[in-house]
Amino acid sequence: MKPIGILGGTFDPVHCGHLRIALDALQQLGLQEVRLLPCRQSPLRDAPRVTAGQRLAMLEAAIAGEPGLVADGRELQREGPSFSVDTLRTLRADYPDTPLCLIVGMDAFIGFAQWKDWRQIFALAHIVVVQRPGSALQFHDAGLQQEFEQRRCQQATELAGDYAGKIFLLEATYLDISATQIRALVAAGNSARYLLPDAVWQYIQQHGLYQ
């Protein structure tokens, strides 16, 4: 069975960097779909600048008509910080026999041992680490390094052989775009076009966001 990809983020706003990673994962890993999950509140970041509904609406506009990319608003319906382990438990309940691939950036994975119940995540999903070109993983936690060495697989096809527990390095297209950069441009009265889909840029302008 083809795996399902899971890509979470604040998406404040969603931009082309997020979407290119999702599309690369979909194509390179042979996934049946990638579910993009905006979080209500990241445990590691400041509160989002716009509402949950607005962030979900921008995400839905961004991926409209793109087969295989799905907006999933389940984290927005829970109060408090959004922890990946809790979200994966709900996804595992929905897809008990389907391989799940949690897609994370390299910087996030380096701090993975600080996540809530991080070892339990390996029982719920595979971890796909998006590798920046020319960058190598630098571990700060011996336990995480040991897990990586034991669980790493070399071929994407291995992810379909079990429903959880492996780690795969994905060489995705890296676009040096950040939501912080976009918000700063808009606040300064400048255009953020070409950093994010036109539909998202139009939504931002229509609703006067980030000004």
Essential attributes:
six-stranded parallel sheet; Rossmann fold; 211 residues; 8 helices; alpha/beta
Task: Tell me about this structure.
The chain has 211 residues and is an alpha/beta fold. It has one domain (4-23, 36-140, 149-207): Rossmann fold (3-Layer(aba) Sandwich). The protein has helices at residues 16-28, 52-63, 84-94, 106-110, 118-121, 142-151, 179-187, 198-207, and strands at 4-9, 33-38, 69-71, 100-105, 126-130, 167-170. It has a six-stranded parallel beta sheet with strand order 3-2-1-4-5-6, with helices on both faces. β5, α6 and β6 form a beta-alpha-beta unit. The N and C termini lie far apart (45 Å).
Q: H/E element string?
A: EHEHEHEHHEHEHH
Beta-strand percent range: 5-15%
Q: Which descriptor suits the 3D outline?
A: globular
Rounded Rg: 17 Å
Number of strands: 6
Largest sheet: 6 strands, parallel
CATH top level class name: Alpha Beta
Q: What structural class do helix, strand and pairing data support?
A: alpha/beta
Whole-number average pLDDT? 94
CATH superfamily: HUPs
Helical percentage: 25-40%
Low-confidence stretches: none
User: Strand order within the widest sheet?
Assistant: 3-2-1-4-5-6
CATH 2nd-level architecture: 3-Layer(aba) Sandwich
For this structure, the CATH topology is Rossmann fold
SS element count, helices: 8
The domain count comes to 1
Could you give a quick summary of the protein structure above?
This protein has helices at residues 16-28, 52-63, 84-94, 106-110, 118-121, 142-151, 179-187, 198-207; strands spanning 4-9, 33-38, 69-71, 100-105, 126-130, 167-170.
